[in-house]
TrEMBL record:
PANTHER family: 39S RIBOSOMAL PROTEIN L18, MITOCHONDRIAL, LARGE RIBOSOMAL SUBUNIT PROTEIN UL18M. Keywords: Ribonucleoprotein, Ribosomal protein, RNA-binding, rRNA-binding. It comes from the Eukaryota. Belongs to the universal ribosomal protein uL18 family. This is Large ribosomal subunit protein uL18c. Pfam families: Ribosomal_L18p (PF00861). GO terms for molecular function: 5S rRNA binding; structural constituent of ribosome. One of its GO terms (biological process) is translation. SUPFAM superfamilies: Translational machinery components (SSF53137). It comes from Sesamum radiatum. GO terms for cellular component: cytoplasm; ribonucleoprotein complex; ribosome.
Length: 181
């Protein structure tokens, strides 16, 4: 027997004992909760919800704090850039990859490179998004720009992304071309 048939048989037995009372005064007995049995049919009293309320409730069930931590592995501390050792911040999207060297004490960008710049966008055809080769080129251009400005040491901020793939390729290329971190 399923759970529905058990609760239905309970309601039927409850209804049988109080049917005459309900027929007299036209009220539902307190022992029968939201489901009530009519003498000839099942009457279900339900609160109507909109599609938006259904979606909100479903997302609240699915998106718990534990599942939202899966995408980004955030660091337990904040990486800060100083004038002696600025922060190399990386951001990637599905179409581009960006890298900046930032002095957080002055809130100033000292150098930057991205796939939006002409030398990289003309050299590579990345219609399916940036690849590891494109990320290496961005790291190389960023390292050259930093060395021209006298920046040799940086603190690498991966921005919560795993150190793998394009992020790792950009960091390795910047290291190979003279940046220390």
């Amino acid at each position: 027997m399923s759970c529905n048939s058990i609760s239905l048989s309970f309601l039927q037995s409850t209804w049988a004992t109080t049917r005459t009372q309900q027929l007299r005064d036209g009220t539902r007995p307190s022992s029968v909760p939201a489901l009530a049995l009519h003498p000839r049919r099942l009457v279900v009293e339900a609160k109507s919800r909109t599609r938006t309320q259904d979606r909100t409730a479903r997302h609240a069930r699915i998106l718990t704090p534990e599942t939202s931590k899966v995408k980004f592995d955030f660091l337990p501390f904040q990486i800060e850039g100083t004038p002696e050792r600025p922060r190399l911040c990386v951001f990637r999207s599905n179409k581009h990859i960006y890298a900046q060297v930032i002095d957080d004490s002055k809130m100033h960008t000292l150098a930057s490179a991205s796939t939006m710049q002409k030398p990289i966008s003309e050299e590579f055809d990345y219609s399916s998004g940036p690849t590891i080769d494109v990320a290496k080129k961005v790291g190389e251009i960023l390292a050259k720009t930093c060395l021209e400005k006298g920046i040799t040491k940086v603190a690498f901020d991966r921005g919560g992304y795993p150190y793998h793939g394009r992020i790792e390729a950009l960091a390795d290329a910047a290291r190979e071309h003279g940046l220390q971190f």
